[in-house]
Give the backbone structure.
Amino acid sequence: MDKEQVNRCLKKKGYYRTKKISYKKLIIGMAVIIVVLIAALVVVLHSGTKNVLVGIGKITTAKVKEEDMRYSYYEDNGGSLLTPYRDNGAGTGRMAEVIVPYAECTDGATSDNRSNPLCSALTRGTVDRVVSVEGSADNPVYVLESGVKVNDEYLQIMENGFLLPENTLAVSTCGMSANGVKFTLDTQWAVPVQMRTEPQEYYVGYLERAYNVEEYTAEYLDIHFSRTIAFSGELDFSESDVIRSWEWIPEEDGGTLRLKLKKRGEFYGVSYSLDKNGRFEFVVKKNITTDSSPVVMLDPGHGGSDPGASSLGEEYESAVTLNIAEKVADCLAARGVKVLMTRREESDVSLDTRIAMIRKYSPTLFVSIHCDSSETPDLFGTHTFYYENFSQPLADSIHRQMAEVYGALYQADEAKAAESDRGIKFYPFAVTRTENCPSVLVECGYLSNEEDCDFLMSEAGRLQIAAAIADGIVEQLNIA
Ligand SMILES: [Zn+2]
């Protein structure tokens, strides 16, 4: 083909645009582009470091697949790891494997089987030796060698499993991610891991629960590995906003990786799992993402076949919490915050699903919205609950705003105004029991009390409550 033929061929295939553009149109076009670029530059410069606020945050519904969450990690994975399913030359015993993504534990040394924040959940694939069994025949609770107790439903038990030798850890990778720091550790087997933010003093408060926090004071995150006698390699946190430094502390029953926090308010939770290569993967989160806006997960309590608390007004709790949550979402979106909702209609969402949503999306923070009800109609006002010590500052921010709203509602009676502030409390609500992010549950008032209920049924009341929750959240995100 000569040049002419080639050109004709390309034209036919549409490679060439044959239409001629006039100079006049070209100049107008370029002028428009320049104006748009200058406008964009002005917006960016004007917003400075607050560029997370440019634009409107999106509101979306969180979704998780409903599937059987119980299966053994070792069926498809973990070929390189030592397991109780193969002989390790250390004899045999009654062994347990964690077969859910997130197995809650309690303290094996006490008879108290209630959740407490000093015992963190074990990840899928964790194995340990069973020391004894408590509970009933129908609902056994296994006491494990590492010192925690775990419910039967989270475990697969091997009556003649193979015992495991002492473990060693080695740094595999360490790097920054959009929401914090991620590092992986090579391990010989999936030893039990316990995580705690320390130092922290607790006091006995509401319903005699012992884990109330006056002030969140943690300086470091301790990650304890059972049966682990050595740690090798270097973790480089020089680029991190969350962790200042680290040390390995050998102990009698294993060892602790101590991560010193740069600023305690920057620490926004931690998660760990066994990756598909059989390495421990840890993510230590910070309170804001670098590359995008913060993501707030809002959880309107109840829904669908579960209407929640009954009410003196026209709507039950599930409708009120949904409406308030939608209003909070609007307030946050207008400030550039991305919002994920656990539901946006009257649908059934189980507690397990809500917790699975937290784990899947790993939001910056989580707020569950509820209304109270009591057989005593003269109970009124608002309170906010947390579980982890690092969730207490979020509970505090939201509660201070909510208490102001109720203080104003009851301002005619000083004693009532004071009583409407029911305080910030530790309580182990399911959705707050997560190490993944700060998580609180706010009770927006009593549907069983006439004055509270009138306020909760009014558009003006709901708008005030929603604005208070949104203000409390934004205060914590430090983007106001
Ligand atoms: Zn509720």
Q: What stands out?
A: DSSP finds eight helices and 24 strands in the chain. The radius of gyration is 27 Å. Residues 10 and 16 are 6 Å apart (CA to CA). The mean pLDDT is 89.
